[in-house]
Amino acid sequence: MTTVEFLDLNTDEGISRAAAYKVKKAELVRGGQRIFAKIKRSSKYFGQGEKGALFPVYIEASYGDYHVQGGPGGQYRLSDVNLFVVSDEGDVVLRIG
After folding, report:
1. Residue 25 CB coordination number (10 Å)
2. By the 8 A CB rule, do 36 and 83 touch?
3. Is 57:35 a contact under the CB 8 Å cutoff?
4. Model-wide pTM > 0.90
5. Would you tell me how many other CB atoms lie within 10 Å of the CB of residue 35?
């Protein structure tokens, strides 16, 4: 079950909780297996960010169709990106999709 929380960004508490959530998201990108994405040419989002560049992401099941979190647009559908696993040395070791 997905929980939705509404934050009042006009309060110190709301601003603090939003900042903590951003930190948590950044940790998910940095921690664990390193997954990167590249926007497909067929996607309506093609052209966002640096052309052809890989960007770090993580997968989250609770955002409707937008499971891929991170990158220049913030979130993408799996159909909009190719996923890659990258080694600590920066080499692409696996392309997914």
Report:
1. 14
2. yes
3. yes
4. no
5. 20
Written as one string, the DSSP assignment of 40-52 is -TTSTTTTSSSTT
Tens of pLDDT along the chain (97 residues) come to 456 788 999 999 999 999 998 888 777 777 667 889 999 999 999 988 888 889 999 888 876 889 999 999 889 999 999 999 887 777 777 788 6
Distance of CA 34 to the CA centre of its chain: 12
CB 56 within 8 A of CB 13: no
C-beta of residue 38 within 8 angstroms of C-beta of residue 52:
yes
- CA pair distance 24, 76, nearest whole angstrom: 19
- Go through 58-94 and write b for each residue having 16 or more CB atoms within 10 A of its CB, e for each that does not: beeeeeeeebbbbbebebbeeebbebbebeeeeeeee
